Amino acid sequence: MIPWTYQSSGSSSDSGQDSNFQYYQPNPSLILNSQTQCIATINSPNAYTSSMVLSGKFLFTGSSDNQICLWRRNLFSTELGHESSPVCNMGVPGKGVVKCLVVSTDKIFSAHQDHKIRVWRIDMDERENGKFTHLATLPKLSDRAMKFLVPKNHVEIRRHKKATWVHHVDSVSSLALSNDESLLYSVSWDKTIKIWRTHDFRCLESISKAHDDAINAVAISLDGYVYTGSADKRIKVWRKDSEEMKHYEVSILEGHNYGINALALSTDECQLYSGDSEGAIVVWQRVNDGDLVVAGALHGHSKSILCLAVANDLVCSGSADKTVKVWKPFEGLNSCLVTLEGHNGPVKCLAVANDQYQSSDSVSSCLIYSGGLDFEIKVWQVLVPNV
Asked: Where would I find the WD repeats (predicted)?
């Protein structure tokens, strides 16, 4: 396995690399022996897995047939992988894909292709069998009714058609929770960002035309910065004004030549990773004044980056090229440690198990969960040398 080292690029090449970028290029003189194995494969005959998130001992998955499932992670083993069934599952009202899932202390939020956000509670019995309870669909009927009665709350969504500003009018593509879990942020292909209060599910704010094209991803730092990535090739940084209690645009990050599909913050939040439709992952480094600047780009995928996930010092990327790549900092730079091959379709979603990242003197181990358009969920055990 050949890692990638940081190297300045010269002029633009035939591959379309921007001369303003610095790239990680192969360094044959440095080889790390990473070991990996697929320890479980779950087949879904009816739908592909479109979203996933880990929470404690469980894995939540959303699918293209509007199902949300809860899996007990200890059932994913070589022996049980093909026979495991979810602890519980829920067929969601409406049609379309479950685009994103986030879990708070006591709730699960799901984003849907039918323009809605749904809120759930999981009730577990003493045998750890679960049951989904539907708490709300956002925007709530009461919220819609209050806004509907006041004309100024109506916005034009297309020619000769209006809706209240609490509505998303296209697929809700991504969700994120504030650090204290009091606010839920949703972004949509309708180019808007909406902020919801989680205790009563009220829409507090809508940023209309936040981008010039569909918004595909959102990430939030512990200190309150909100990052949104769009098909308009830009990342925007937002911050809440403590006096007006409204969000304002802090800066625009420009460095991609193609639309942005995924965002992820490093564990220490000093780097932001953004993946685009050409297969590049741009690494943004936070400098002393808090601004983010381009530190480099990770190249190795041959098609679109569809998802990113971070755990401790590992960065995982899933792509339309049917592979998952695992990246690890080496001498301050990110090296491609291993490529996970086994999916027969694009890799749509990823999750990395933080709590199973266990280190010895020479080797670290973690579990990576991947969902593909091949209707399979795979679980990978990756052993990484400590360098």
From this structure: 165-206, 208-248, 253-285, 298-328
In the block, which residue shows the tokens 């929470």?
55
What's the pLDDT tens digit per position in 140-194? 887 766 666 666 666 666 655 667 788 899 999 999 999 999 999 999 999 999 9
Distance CA 365, CA 348 (A): 23
Strands 161-164 and 154-158: antiparallel
pTM: 0.86
Would you tell me how many other CB atoms lie within 10 Å of the CB of residue 169? 15
CB contact at 8 A, 138 and 120: no
Distance CA(16)–CA(237), nearest Å, equals 26
- The count of other CB atoms within 10 Å of the CB of residue 357 is 17
Residue 17 CA from chain centroid, whole number: 25
Distance from C-alpha of 142 to C-alpha of 164, rounded to nearest angstrom: 12
Residue ranges covered by each domain of the chain = 59-254
Report the alpha-carbon distance of residue 104 to residue 138 in Å, rounded: 16
CA dist 77 and 367 (Å) reads 11
